[in-house]
Design the sequence.
C-alpha cells in the first residue's frame, strides 16, 4: 500500500501517518478558536501580546493552523495520485499559509512575555520556516520532484513545531512548570529536534533508495 511520499507502507509507517494526521488536525482545529477574536480564548501568558497585536495574532493562529492541517494531508499518497489538482492547490494554500504564519510570527515574537531568548528562538524558527518552504515551493514549480519532496518534508518538520511545543508544554505542566518558565527553552526545543528527525528520515529514505520513486505528475 502506498502511503508517506509514495513509498510502500508497512504497519509502522501507516500508524505514524495516522498519529501525525490526528495530532495535526487536533492542534489545528483547537487553534481555529482564535477566529472568534475573543480574548477569553487566549491563555493568560499571551493576553498582552494578543491585545497589542490584534488581527496579526489572529492571522498567525489561523494561517498556521491551516498550514498544519493542509500540510499533514499532503503526505497522503492516495490523495496525490487520485486528485493531483487537489494536491497542487493544497500545496499553494500551504505555502501561502506558511508565509502568512511566518511573517505574523516575526511580528509577534518581540512581544513574547518571557523575554529575548524566546523572541530569538521563535524568530529563528519563523525565518527557517519561510526560507525552507520557499525552497520547497521553487523545486515544485521547476518540477524537481525529489528535491521538492525533501524540502517539503523539512518544511513540515518546522510546521509541526506547533505539535511538539504543545506536547512538551503538557510534559512541563505535569512536572509543575508553566509556560512562562519554559517558553525560552520551548522556543528552541519545539523545532530543533524536528529538524534532526527530518534529516534522519531523509537519510534513511536515501539509504533505502526511496527517492527514486518519483511521481512527476502529482507534484504541486
Ligand atoms: C513554525 C513557525 C511558528 C512560529 C515562529 C510561531 C510563533 C509563535 C509565537 C511567537 C506565538 C506567541 C507566543 C507568546 O506570546 O508567548 C505563537 C502563538 C501561537 N501559535 Fe505559533 N508559531 C509558529 C507556528 C505555528 C503553527 C504551525 C501553528 C498551528 C496551529 C501555530 C499556532 C499558534 C497558536 C494557536 C498560538 C497562540 C497560543 C496558543 O493558543 O497556544 N503556530 N506562535
Sequence:
Amino acid at each position: 500500500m502506498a502511503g508517506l511520499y509514495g513509498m510502500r507502507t508497512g504497519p509502522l509507517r501507516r500508524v505514524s501517518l495516522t498519529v501525525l494526521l490526528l495530532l495535526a488536525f487536533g492542534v489545528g482545529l483547537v487553534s481555529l478558536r482564535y477566529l472568534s477574536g475573543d480574548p477569553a480564548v487566549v491563555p493568560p501568558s499571551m493576553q498582552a501580546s494578543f491585545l497589542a497585536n490584534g488581527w496579526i495574532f489572529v492571522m498567525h493562529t489561523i494561517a498556521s493552523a491551516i498550514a498544519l492541517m493542509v500540510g499533514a494531508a499532503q503526505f497522503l499518497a492516495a490523495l496525490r495520485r487520485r486528485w493531483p489538482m487537489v494536491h497542487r492547490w493544497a500545496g499553494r494554500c500551504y505555502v501561502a499559509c506558511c508565509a502568512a504564519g511566518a511573517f505574523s510570527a516575526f511580528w509577534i515574537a518581540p512581544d513574547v512575555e518571557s523575554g529575548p531568548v524566546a523572541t530569538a528562538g521563535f524568530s529563528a524558527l519563523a525565518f527557517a520556516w519561510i526560507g525552507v518552504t520557499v525552497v520547497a515551493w521553487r523545486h515544485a514549480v521547476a518540477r524537481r520532484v525529489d528535491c521538492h519532496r525533501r524540502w517539503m518534508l523539512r518544511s513540515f518538520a518546522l510546521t509541526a513545531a506547533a505539535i511538539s511545543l504543545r506536547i512538551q508544554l503538557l510534559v512541563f505542566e505535569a512536572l509543575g512548570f508553566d509556560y512562562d518558565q519554559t517558553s525560552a527553552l520551548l522556543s528552541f526545543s519545539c523545532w530543533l529536534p524536528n529538524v534532526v528527525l527530518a534529516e534522519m528520515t531523509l537519510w534513511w529514505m536515501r539509504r533505502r533508495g526511496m527517492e527514486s520513486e518519483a511521481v512527476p505528475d502529482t507534484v504541486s
